[in-house]
């Protein structure tokens, strides 16, 4: 391509909590051949006049973005003759990006940008069938319970009932994700100078493997615990089992990509919220939809994100991204299913 060259960038893992939201196309952590970041390189003649230089920088960035898009089309096997229309829409396909390098020697301006392109959408637009299809979402099914450590007999029953009641786990499914659940119980005993009894319940969910236990030979998916107090020990056990089960369900929703939320910690104008909503929905690979979930008591907007990313994965992939219209989104906090962001410089 005139004025630019192409190359494909290998995925780079970034520290999970040095993160911010939006401004560049993002990708699912288990990147396939259909979801990968690309870089493009663009050149433009420099000069001495500040206005000329500013214009040349813009031209170099545009060429670099087009080069990255062309690289994605090439990886999908789109014939050169079929790329013209999409390359003419490079600004829309690469609406958010990261400048990796910018050099000026007086005569030439060189810019390198990184763009992560949603290859599935791109393949559809180019009428190319993706080489692989995304597998159907597996439904967590508790295939067995590991040996209790030592727990009252009814705690397992309460935990099992509560987990199924959340709707996250199923008793059976045609596309199951077999799990082993393990209970750990600790009797904290009576609380001094009160009538309360304290207990701790921990639930661990592991992938089913050769071992019937969650003993390190199988992958731990999530683990949560709850400490509760009540006038009767049995009441405390039931409360703790219920709370731990609810926490497991919340964590599993994050693992499955459900109920992921992005909170804009400061009151934002509606137009800017729409830009964030649109960018998440169109630019982040494998996100199936974004909707306004609500507004907190202090005026912060929360966006509900439907897609197979955890909060940490989403935040990691949108670190330092720029927003259309100026500013960059900075992540200020990441929790179970929630990414809180603000606008920074």
Describe this structure in words.
Helices cover about 30% and strands about 30% of the residues. By secondary structure, it is of the alpha+beta class. The radius of gyration is 25 Å and the shape is elongated. It has helices at about 50-75, 85, 90-95, 120-125, 155-165, 235-255, 270-285, 310-315; strands at about 5-10, 35-45, 100-105, 110-120, 140-145, 175-190, 195-205, 220-230, 260-265, 290-295, 300-305, 330-335, 340-345.
* Biggest beta-sheet profile: 5 strands, mixed
The general outline is elongated
Strand line-up of the largest beta sheet = 10-11-9-13-12
Order of helices and strands: EEHHHEEHEHEEEHEHEEHEE
Task: Output the keywords.
elongated; five-stranded mixed sheet; alpha+beta; four-stranded antiparallel sheet; 8 helices
How are the SSEs placed, and which strands pair?
Blueprint: E1 4-8, E2 35-45, H1 50-75, H2 84-87, H3 90-93, E3 98-104, E4 108-118, H4 119-125, E5 139-145, H5 153-165, E6 176-190, E7 197-207, E8 220-230, H6 233-255, E9 260-264, H7 270-283, E10 289-295, E11 301-306, H8 311-317, E12 328-335, E13 338-344
Parallel strand pairs: 5-6, 9-13
Antiparallel strand pairs: 1-2, 2-4, 3-4, 6-7, 7-8, 9-11, 10-11, 12-13
């Amino acid at each position: 391509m005139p004025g630019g060259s192409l190359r494909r960038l290998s995925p780079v893992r970034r520290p999970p909590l040095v993160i911010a939201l939006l401004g560049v196309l993002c990708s699912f952590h288990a990147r396939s051949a259909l979801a990968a970041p690309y870089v493009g390189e663009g050149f433009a003649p420099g000069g001495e006049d500040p206005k000329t230089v500013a214009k040349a920088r813009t031209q170099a960035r545009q060429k670099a973005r087009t080069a990255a898009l062309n690289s994605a089309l090439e990886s999908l096997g789109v014939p050169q003759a079929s790329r013209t229309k999409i390359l003419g829409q490079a600004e829309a396909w690469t609406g958010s990006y990261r400048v990796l390098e910018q050099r000026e020697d007086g005569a030439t301006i060189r810019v390198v940008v990184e763009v992560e392109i949603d290859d599935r959408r791109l393949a559809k637009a180019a009428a190319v069938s993706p080489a692989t299809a995304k597998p159907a979402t597996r439904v967590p099914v508790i295939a067995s319970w590991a040996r209790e450590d030592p727990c009252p007999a009814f705690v397992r029953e309460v935990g099992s009932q509560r987990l199924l009641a959340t709707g996250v786990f199923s008793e059976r499914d045609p596309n199951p994700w077999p799990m082993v659940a393990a209970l750990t119980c600790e009797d904290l005993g009576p609380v001094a100078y009160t009538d309360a009894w304290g207990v701790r319940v921990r639930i661990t969910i592991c992938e089913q493997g050769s071992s019937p236990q969650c003993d390190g030979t199988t992958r731990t998916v999530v683990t949560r615990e709850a400490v509760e107090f009540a006038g009767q020990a049995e009441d405390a056990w039931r409360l703790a089992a219920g709370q731990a089960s609810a926490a497991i369900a919340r964590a599993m929703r994050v693992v499955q990509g459900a109920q992921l939320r992005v909170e804009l910690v400061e009151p934002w104008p509606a137009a800017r919220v729409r830009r964030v909503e649109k960018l998440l929905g169109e630019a982040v690979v494998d996100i199936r939809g974004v909707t306004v979930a609500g507004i907190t008591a202090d005026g912060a907007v929360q966006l509900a994100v439907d897609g197979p990313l955890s909060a940490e994965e989403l935040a990691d992939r949108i670190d330092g991204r720029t927003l259309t219209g100026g500013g960059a989104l900075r992540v200020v906090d990441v929790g179970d299913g929630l990414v809180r962001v603000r606008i920074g410089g």
